[in-house]
Design goal:
The complex is a heterodimer of chains A (315) and B (376). Chain A is α/β, with parallel strands linked by helices and 315 residues long. Helix content of chain A is 34%, strand content 29%. In chain A, helix 3 packs across helix 4. The longest helix of chain B is centred in the middle third of the chain and has 30 residues. Chain B folds into 2 domains: 237 residues, no CATH class; 112 residues, D-Maltodextrin-Binding Protein, domain 2, CATH 3.40.190. The chains are: A alpha/beta (315), B mainly alpha (376).
């Protein structure tokens, strides 16, 4: 059975009258990439800060590697790597020095540290920028440096708090691939983000948060199975009458359909070959149609169905 | 772990352009400015060259003429006077060959072309002459019996105000600006002190948050940063004093090593003061830098950096304040070295600085060592 790396029990954190975390329970197993997904202000970063003993909390317990986490739990801290939301590096030091400094807080042996620093540089693709000051790095490279500083000491638990904010797509992909590689190398990952695509792409298990509460938890598929929708069919089509839309709505596994005069949207729950059945109806009625595409539910649909609101505004 | 933190704190400190500007370049630039600005004035004030002037006799004044003759014949004459007619005198004044025209007659008057040290000296001389002449004339007219006594007392006045040296040190008033400059540059160490708090507190910076997540106890991290700051400040103070003493050639007498000691401890005072300021509240680093700059400038102002006699004003109104104002304590310590032969007062200032360093550093550590925060 997999070991529990992080256990959060009934965690409550208040800022005055605002309840930032409301009896939060989480259990993260060894080897997972655990995603904490939620809109801004849902409590993801507060959870991480409590987990790292940076923040006081009103109630609850936090255990990491089976031991209570406190500010003086240096033996636990040795095994954790942290990549903060805001870039946390020395502006005066160059790339190599920054990584060496942070690695040196965990690793005393100089030779070993040198090897680890070089590995972290190679891992984040910063070989050509060793002597660069952080001011001269692009946003993406700066984020990579931020990651290198957090992972150079080869931690068993890596906590990444929105590491891809304000990063270009190319660097974002590089970062996500890197996180998966770290996981393959044995690290347990906690990944917070409000980008559902990222969480869907890399996380093996996900907790969705809203207003300080965990509103759903499971694997990507488990979460999607929690909701009614399993497939959304979109067809660009003109001149449909009520008879035809009624015929489509009556098809098996179709629980709703919308037509705005140019696009037909059909919502299905379960079943196979739903798209073929919808197209059959159109062909039988000699209706010409344009672009056809089918969408599987996203975590946004899960969030929408549970909370009644979209996970985030489109960016 | 201490050495790792210490080493990197020093490295980042010396690589910080902003810090190096305020702690090394700024005092040097200001020192050069002071030197240029004050050396001319000082040279003028201490000049031994007699002041050239023309005497135009509107009416015959035998007494005044004999005074001028006596002055012209004296060994250390301050006046180089020539008797001439008014047109020639005006021409000489216009050409800048003389600094003033003294009109001799029943009343002595002066005409100058511009304001300056020489012109002021001439004016003072004429006023003194007129005053004394009036006193003697009045006494002779109204109370001739006392004339001899009054004339004798006027002659003795010089002996009454004869200089009694308390030291053999340098009493150039303008040098006190350089002492204040050393005090100010020492207090700029406060920026580094603020930096210690900011970079070690999770609620003040992302860097502080990351360091708080590491397995290094905060006490070690803070102590290493504080020691690193003291080391940087030590180097900066040495550079600053060396520049002032050897490049700007400000005379510290034979007590230069003690000036270094005062400047270094002054720097440590600045660092610990900044560390204390940085530990108060959760304002942003820029806000704290601004606050620190404001406080330093106020302290320097009250210690006489901007207005020369301000320290005397404070000494009169609130004498206790000069004993706790770090800027005044630092500049005073150097001033003492140059004014007093014995070192008691200097060491009192040094002890004051050490106590200040200990108090600010301890308060800073107590306030910064909190390990968890209510909000970030």
């Amino acid at each position: 059975m997999e070991n529990t790396v992080v256990k959060i029990s009934s965690l409550v954190k208040r800022y005055g009258d605002l309840v930032a975390l409301d009896h939060l329970d989480l259990e993260i197993k060894e080897g997972e990439i655990f995603g904490l997904l939620g809109p801004n202000g849902s409590g993801k970063t507060t959870t991480i800060n409590c987990l790292l003993s940076l923040l006081t909390f009103d109630k609850g317990e936090i255990e990491i590697f089976g031991k209570e986490m406190t500010p003086s739990s240096y033996d636990i801290k040795k095994q954790i790597g942290v990549i903060m939301q805001n870039v946390a590096v020395f502006e005066e030091l160059n790339v190599y020095e920054n990584i060496d400094y942070f690695c040196g807080l965990y690793i005393r042996d100089k030779a070993e540290r040198k090897r680890l620093v070089e590995e972290a540089i190679a891992f984040t693709g910063l070989e050509d920028f060793k002597k660069f000051s952080p001011k001269k790095l692009s946003g993406g490279l700066l984020r990579r440096l931020n990651i290198a500083c957090g992972i150079a000491h080869k931690p068993k638990l890596i906590i990444l708090d929105e590491p891809t904010v304000a990063v270009d797509p190319q660097s974002r992909n590089k970062i996500l691939e890197g996180i998966q590689e770290l996981n393959k190398n044995g690290a347990t990952i906690i990944y917070t983000s409000h980008y559902m695509e990222e969480v869907e792409q890399i996380c093996t298990r996900i907790a969705i948060m809203d207003k300080g509460k965990k509103i759903a938890e499971g694997t990507n598929d488990e979460l999607k199975r929690m909701i009614k929708n399993t497939e959304t069919i979109n067809i660009e089509v003109l001149g449909l009458d009520e008879k035809i839309t009624g015929e489509i709505s009556a098809l098996p596994h179709v629980y709703n359909s919308e037509y705005d005069g140019a696009k037909l949207t059909v919502y299905c729950s379960g079943g196979k070959h739903n798209l073929i059945r919808v197209l059959d109806v159109l062909q039988k009625n000699d209706i010409a149609f344009g672009r056809v595409y089918s969408e599987l539910p996203t975590l946004n649909d899960v969030f929408l169905e549970i909370t009644g609101k979209a996970l985030r505004d489109k960016e | 772990m201490f050495w790792h933190n210490f080493r990197y704190f020093i490295k980042s400190g010396f690589k910080s352009g902003n810090l190096m500007f305020w702690m090394i370049l700024f005092p040097i630039i200001l020192g050069i400015f002071f030197k240029i600005a004050f050396s001319d004035i000082y040279n003028d004030l201490t000049s031994t060259e007699p002041i050239p002037a023309a005497i135009v006799e509107n009416e015959e004044n035998k007494v005044f003429r004999s005074v001028i003759d006596a002055l012209n014949d004296s060994e250390n004459k301050f006046l180089d006077a020539k008797f001439t007619d008014e047109n020639t005198a005006m021409e000489l004044l216009k050409n800048g060959e003389i600094d003033g025209i003294i009109y001799s007659g029943e009343k002595i008057s002066l005409t100058v072309a511009e304001n300056g040290i020489e012109e002021t000296t001439l004016k003072e001389f004429i006023e003194q002459y007129n005053l004394r002449e009036k006193i003697i004339t009045d006494v002779i007219t109204k109370d001739p019996g006392n004339a001899e006594k009054v004339i004798s007392e006027l002659s003795e006045e010089r002996e009454i105000i004869e200089e009694t040296p308390v030291t053999h040190g340098n009493t150039n008033n303008f040098d006190s600006y350089f002492y204040n400059l050393i005090a100010m540059s020492s207090l700029y160490g406060s920026y580094m002190g603020i930096n210690i708090s900011t970079k070690n507190q999770a609620n003040l910076s992302a860097l502080g948050a990351r360091k708080n997540c590491s397995p290094v106890p905060k006490g070690i991290s803070l102590t290493a940063a504080l020691c690193g700051s003291f080391f940087i400040e030590f180097i900066c103070s040495v550079i600053c004093v060396t520049f002032i003493a050897f490049v700007l050639k400000i005379d510290f007498g034979n007590r230069l090593p003690l000036v270094y000691l005062a400047a270094i401890l002054g720097g440590f005072t600045g660092v610990s003061f900044g560390f204390f300021i940085g530990s108060i509240g959760n304002m942003k680093e820029n806000t704290k830098d601004g606050l620190s700059t404001g406080i330093i400038m106020t302290l320097c102002y009250l210690s006489g950096l901007m207005v020369g006699n301000m320290k005397a004003v404070v000494a009169e109104k609130a004498p206790w304040f000069n004993n706790i104002n770090p800027a005044a304590v630092i500049s005073d310590s150097i001033y003492c070295l140059n004014i007093y032969d014995d070192l008691d007062r200097f060491f009192t200032k040094i002890i004051t600085m050490i106590i200040t360093i200990l108090i600010f550093s301890t308060l800073g550590i107590i306030m910064t060592r909190r390990k968890r925060y209510a909000s970030l």
